[in-house]
Amino acid sequence: MRKRYNRILLKLSGESLQGEQGYGIDPVRLSQYAEQIAKIAQEGTQVAIVIGGGNIFRGLSGAQKGFDRVKGDQMGMLATVINSLALSSALTAAGQPSRVFTSINMFPVGEYYSKWRAIEALEAGEVAIVAGGTGNPYFTTDTASALRGIELETEVMLKGTRVDGIYTADPEKDSTATRFDEISYDEIYNRGLKVMDLTATTLCRDNGLPIIVFDMDTPGNLLKVLAGEKIGTLVY
Fold first, then answer.
1. What domains, with CATH codes, occur in the chain?
2. CA pair distance 18, 143, nearest whole angstrom
3. Quick check: 3 pLDDT over 70?
């Protein structure tokens, strides 16, 4: 594979780990993800990962049901740690070393995150999985992925979703929706498109971190993106 990027931040949604079962962690989907990630890491791409926790608990929806917002967000952070540990285990099974970092001190569950330790892991050929969001309430894992991508000096954020890019409207609800091949950060904002939250989008824009939104659920797509194939939508 001809690499287009040497160091990437891969953002995975928690919901995508549900697979066909509709809740929790689907071992088949987890294994598919791990095999794709292991392949690109073993071919020399440095991979940092941030995973959401929506398959287990989402802080905002918990707050809407009566949970204290801060406690709800903390529960969501713990959900991302569970998902990160599961992915780390699956990567080990695929023969790929990885290290789980946590944004709040949770030793020995994971290593307390620092930029320098995470880069050290990346340069040693390990996949660096950064769990726990930003460690603060009121911030999403999209914002965490933007922050970590910038901190770890990655060249691109790859946002793996269940749809094949960014559309003019929700393609699952609007059959007339059309997909963008490329779109600017500002156009996302002006059109009110729900790609990531505004904080995450602004962080990426202000720090020049491009985003590629693509369908991670189709095996092989991650390799295609890294090879420069025109799949998904580039945000610049």
1. 7-235 (3.40.1160.10)
2. 22
3. no
